[in-house]
Amino acid sequence: MTQLRFALAQIDTCVGDLEGNASSVLQFSRMAAAHHADVVVFPEMTLTGYPIEDLALRRTFREAPWNKADQLAGVLRDEGLGNLYVVVGTVGSAQPLAQTSAGERKDEETARGPRDVEDESKAEGKPTNRLVVLHDGVVYAGYDKHFLPNYGVFDEFRIFQSGTRTTILEIGGVRIGFAICEDIWQDGGPVAVLATCGIDVLLTINGSPYEEGKTHTRLELAAKRAAQVGAPLIYVNQVGGQDDLVFDGGTFVVDADGTLLERSPMFMEDLGYFDFDSQARRQKPGKIHELPDPDEEVYTACVLGLSDYMTKNHFTGVTLGLSGGIDSALVAAMAADACGGEHVWGVSMPSMYSSDGSKDDAADLARNIGGHYDVQPIEPLFDAFQGQLNLEGIAAENLQARIRGVIVMAYSNSKGLLALATGNKSELACGYSTIYGDAVGGYAPIKDLLKTRVWELARWRNKATVAGMGIGGLHMVGNESGNRGIEPDGGVIIPVNSIEKAPSAELRPGQKDSDSLPEYAMLDKVLAAYIEKAHGRADLIADGFDERTVDTVMRLVDRAEWKRRQYPLGPKVTALAFGRDRRLPVTSAFAE
Amino acid sequence: MTQLRFALAQIDTCVGDLEGNASSVLQFSRMAAAHHADVVVFPEMTLTGYPIEDLALRRTFREAPWNKADQLAGVLRDEGLGNLYVVVGTVGSAQPLAQTSAGERKDEETARGPRDVEDESKAEGKPTNRLVVLHDGVVYAGYDKHFLPNYGVFDEFRIFQSGTRTTILEIGGVRIGFAICEDIWQDGGPVAVLATCGIDVLLTINGSPYEEGKTHTRLELAAKRAAQVGAPLIYVNQVGGQDDLVFDGGTFVVDADGTLLERSPMFMEDLGYFDFDSQARRQKPGKIHELPDPDEEVYTACVLGLSDYMTKNHFTGVTLGLSGGIDSALVAAMAADACGGEHVWGVSMPSMYSSDGSKDDAADLARNIGGHYDVQPIEPLFDAFQGQLNLEGIAAENLQARIRGVIVMAYSNSKGLLALATGNKSELACGYSTIYGDAVGGYAPIKDLLKTRVWELARWRNKATVAGMGIGGLHMVGNESGNRGIEPDGGVIIPVNSIEKAPSAELRPGQKDSDSLPEYAMLDKVLAAYIEKAHGRADLIADGFDERTVDTVMRLVDRAEWKRRQYPLGPKVTALAFGRDRRLPVTSAFAE
Q1: The domain B297-515 belongs to what CATH superfamily?
Q2: ipTM topping 0.95
Q3: Which residues make up the binding site for deamido-NAD(+) (chains A, B) (predicted)?
Q4: Nearest alpha carbon to residue B410 among A352, A511, A561, A405
């Protein structure tokens, strides 16, 4: 065989949902086989979902996916898919694969047949992050991730042990080398070994979370690794939201000379194809999906994160406070795009300080998205509390926010809705938020967006409605394909007034954000440098920010961070007599 | 010199408070010198505090303690303490110490003079967890921790790189080998090397958090290591609360034959001594403090954790809801012991379902501890909300708890008090708690205590009052030494009725905990096995628990854990465009 067809299965898994994930593998494998694929490739930790955090340390959890891999191999064969090579990620036992291999070579092993891996799950110690190939009814070959990222959002060294072997799988004379995610991000390791072994394809499976600008970084890096091994690199990435991470997909294939051979769409499940021809000097490019523009990309990431959080936690609707301001308006629009406007419960909770304009804007927004809209004035409740408490200043402002928090949670509890927090990154970073008040919620869709980005996305969202654009696989409220009979307000979803007016918390008469914070245009630049680039005071001044602004922003951020950490959720149940919470994913369908 | 006096400085550091920590080192060094010590030994990461979490990754933070170590060495010399060898923990630069050493030996280096280490802090990469010896005005010798724990509450591999060298310091012919905490918990590494080098003393500095029963484990382990190197082992541990961890001190020295040579008290700062005689066949035992009984030990750990959380976060008082139940009563007693009854604001928030007995018990408790006591009925507030919301069932029960949460936070905000959450581990584990309601608070003193333990500690606390006992360095309200003119109720602090009545949340008429939960005597046993020992379903049945109870408890815990994770604090400010919170300690006095 000189031609090999790879199917690239960019799927959305759920942590702990072994049944659901395996069923998705089966379904995509059927489609791949129907399209004459020889190999179908799934993302990192397909069967378990990713990231599994400390679930990896539970013995019962480690055994389950291993049994599932065996069982799935059998089902695939029974369905007549035994000829297909199905590459899935899972959790491996503590026993290194090397010990189950017939070969004796230290750096390379070439898999040609089934292995005796059944007893591995009984071994003790940390498990591995493993890739297995299901073929002919058995777990046919395997590879354990070598580099375990342990920075930023990653904690893999905590829960896994490193693989020590390199694996090459030969299919009809085509030599396929394996790597898992971080393996290609660091020099040395398996890719360096594979570069000396002569491989025809470098196949990588990934769980790489979304960050702005990462698409380019990944492609550059992959091209470098493809050149290093002198063969095309297949990069299959997970898609979907998992807890507070969003995986963007964007699976691709790049040739050794840097040519892009395939690119799957971002933010949706997909099954792409790459036809490898071992005779060809250059591989023939397949389908290359265009990239979204930056605003669409970020907006879609937020919607997908929310949508998957809802699905994976079994919520069908959301509730949130609608103040008439830009933050709650954007969150409501995202929510409507995630689950349909009819599943959004907006609650206007005006106080004695709320302007008529704000109330109108909230009502307009709710109408534009086709959402439910209730008005719950907080003044009588505020007066009842004040009759007993007589609070002043910040305490009285916080009281208003907390009464609203109680109301939002009442909607959440009584109607089974997910409460959304509407804070943006600028105000959260500066502590311009009330704990147990507006910070109440199970998910905070725009917590990673600076205020200036919130305005940009609101403008983009309105433009998209008018232009009737769609976004990656998601329904968009108010555009033609939505077809829900909604009449957007002058062709827009988010009231122009919510975008253009000066931001205010409306917790005292005439209050404006700019009373307490630097102007957002400046503030956001300083925040980006201080928080995202971790620039210290001297760096910030060298960046060109004036000393007074730097000191103001640093003081606000440091104080807010201190206060936020001072009031964590509070009680957590710990595995130790005294100690911290077990680290487990929020969304896990795993039951012992 | 054949005799060497070691001073064992068991101090309470604060993360990020370089000035305060250095000043404590200076003060204890002065005392040690006044008592003719040759060497004074401080706990792990003395200058930075421990654990520093992701602060370690901030360049500005890494540089500061290094400069501080240099400066402190100078100050010690200027004060005439240059002859003293001062062993402190700090954060090391990315550059391994080996590269700054004159010697070339790979496994061992013997330090005899100052090193050129000034430029290290400019190097890139992860820092180390370092021990330095300050002597004669300079940083005289150093050792980098080899084994970096990365399980349970520890994340050191995430933030540090391993040391690769073993260090022996010779003082007057006495060869002192160094190890840091985890280095003695694992086989191999520096202790194995030191065992082949011939040392006279094995000196370990530690930041080992409290767990019940750990005192014995540590001593056994240390005796094993002392035997392995054939020399006495000095174990100096940190004391005090840091965020959600409590360090118990309990510094000790054990000889190669297992003889305990010294033991410092638990839960308080202390300066102990160990006189090493290189001529003696057996070392002479010094002062050996008795261990507290198990109830006293756990109670004191809780009080110290709270007391330090307050001090390090600059709180002088607390507020909490007093229901008349056992949980809030025990927390209030702990708070009074931590900061004095006059700094405790108890708020009784009776509803239409609160019994007269409960109200009386709350009032009695407040009087017994000499605390403030306010009554804030929630019925009018509940009625005001219900007039708008008409909630039923659990939503109506949660509303009562959330109104109380708003009131507690109002006291916190308006009086600058730390709000305490009063939940115990049994109810938190089973989800018998309301988020944003009774779970409100910055610190939860009994979150790690099962309900049956809560009763035991309440009984112990009453007995201690009657007996006039003191607890580790802490003032106890109501006992003779307290001398605050308080007349405990019949000789007890916690009303007997609060201890003996059937537990109830009083959120609906006639409600009892046992309506929703198995009896605590049984529940707590299953929880201990399921949560602390991570026993799965099959294990639990093998443990002898009946199948129905196992399934009930597992269902409660899994559902509660899922719900708790579903409603995290919500918005966190992240360093990445999309991602999770930077991991930083709650209490950090570090300012850039």
Answers
A1: HUPs (3.40.50.620)
A2: no
A3: 398, 427, 563
A4: A405
